[in-house]
Design brief:
The chain is built from one helix and 23 strands. A hairpin with a 2-residue loop joins strand 11 and strand 12.
């Protein structure tokens, strides 16, 4: 066999090279059969780049296994895992979320170090990388892009893309007493998922007595508890009213729920009537007769005491009896 090669347009060389520098080459190869006849030359033209392309692979999941990249709330974390590169020069990773061609938020950059991965020869096995979805991202479908770039030449890179669907729940559950008195203070509460950043209640919604309250939230695990108090003015007439609750996230997503409640200005809560003698109390009388227990049975001329409990600010209580008792 014979071999000859040269840079395109240059001098021919007649040996098998151990290595070649970057450039465009022409190669001719001949072989001889057992009869001593040489073949026609096999000709090949090829180009050696100054550096090979970057080899790159990676996978994506949500950091919290309760979610997936098919449905993940804004402010939760994505996780790049099983990331691998092969390249003879320095390489870094860049990642970001995109809506079409528009980048959302900032680019996260990861440079290689002993903290970010393990390097063997030209291979780097990168440690898992967390990426937080901005809390302002609206519900929708986005593209998460990861690039492996030549550190000295950012125009040289390989890229992986993943489809990510953002879906942020609010789960608003409002709470208010079903009945309330004027001039009393009531609790106006709600619970939401942890992603809500404001919750508001409009009491007496749609009336001239309408009042807006901003509730104060406290996160407990994955839930936020929202609280406030309100004293119902004495000017509010009795009736059934609506309390409208609205919870919102930083992305502008909101959820609204209405509750109805009744306002009362005065209410009798309890009445007791007691006799001064209490004759029928299950005792045995002087004649040996077993009497029954009848606390509301009275004797003629017996004095009785009526006790009335009320909610509200009653100025007086009027008690009437049947005509035969009032005669």
């Amino acid at each position: 066999r014979k071999i000859m090669f040269r840079r395109t347009g240059g001098e021919w060389y007649y040996y098998i090279p151990e290595e070649l520098g970057p450039g465009t080459y022409e190669l001719k190869y001949y072989v001889k059969d057992v009869e001593g006849a040489w073949s026609d030359p096999f000709t090949m033209n090829f180009t050696l780049a100054s550096a090979p392309s970057i080899q790159f692979d990676a996978k994506l999941r949500t950091k919290d296994s309760n979610f997936s990249i098919n449905s993940v709330p804004a402010s939760e974390y994505l996780e790049v895992y099983d990331a691998w590169t092969r390249y003879p020069y320095n390489v870094r990773l860049e990642m970001a979320l995109y809506n079409g061609s528009t980048r959302i938020g900032t680019v996260k950059t990861v440079n290689y170090s002993s903290i970010t991965g393990v390097k063997t020869g030209n291979d780097i096995h990168w440690n898992n990388i967390s990426y937080q979805i901005p809390s302002t991202v609206k519900d929708g479908t986005y593209t998460f892009k990861i690039k492996a770039l030549d550190t000295s030449n950012s125009s040289k890179y390989e890229e992986k893309s993943f489809t990510v669907t953002v879906n942020t729940p609010i789960n608003l559950v409002p709470s208010i007493p079903g009945n309330a008195m004027t001039e009393t203070t009531i609790d106006v509460n709600a619970t939401t998922a942890k992603y809500a950043n404001t919750t508001r209640a409009i009491l007496f919604y749609g009336t001239s007595y309408q009042k807006t309250l901003d509730l104060v939230g406290t996160q407990k695990s994955n839930i936020k508890e929202w609280v406030n108090k309100y004293t119902i003015p004495s000017s509010v007439p009795e009736g059934i009213y609506t309390a409208r609750f609205t919870a919102s996230t930083p992305s502008g997503k909101s959820e609204t729920k209405d509750l109805q409640f009744k306002v009362e200005t005065l209410k009798i809560t309890n009445i007791t009537i007691e006799g001064g003698w209490n004759h029928w109390r299950e005792q045995v009388d002087m004649f040996g007769t077993q009497l029954t227990n009848e606390p509301h049975r009275f004797l003629s001329l017996e004095e009785i005491t009526v006790r009335v409990s009320t909610d509200g600010y009653a100025e007086k209580v009027e008690i009437r009896f049947s005509p035969e008792l009032e005669a």
